[in-house]
User: What shape does this take?
Amino acid sequence: GTATEKMGRHERAAELFLQAGDFKKAATLFTQAGKAGRAAALFEEKGNSLEAARLFALAGDFERAAVLYVKAGYPLRAAEDAVHVSNDGTFAQAVDSVVAAIVAAEEATA
Assistant: This one.
C-alpha cells in the first residue's frame, strides 16, 4: 500500500491500543502515523512533560514544547524551541511563554 494507507493503519491501530489502555504503544503508533501532536498530548495527560515536549517539538508545536521542557526541568531546551519559533515570526510570544513557564515552575517549587 501507499505511505498514506500505512499511516492510516497506524492511526487506526493507535486508537485500538488507546482503547485497550496501552497509551505508550498508542503514542508510538500515532507518531508513526505522522500524528506526533496526538502522541504528545497522551504523554502530557499522563504527566510525562519531557516526552510530551519532545513530541510537540517533532510536531512543530515549538511553543508548547518549550513550556513543557521548562516544566520538566530543561529550560535550555525551552530556549532552543523558542529560537525555532522565531522562524514564523512569533519569537517574542514564545520567549514570553518560556519566561512565564519558568516563573510558574519556580513558584510551584517555592
Summary: The mean pLDDT is 84. The CA atoms of residues 4 and 48 lie 29 Å apart. Residues 91-109 form the longest helix (19 residues). The helical segments are 3-19, 23-32, 36-45, 49-58, 62-71, 75-85, 91-109.
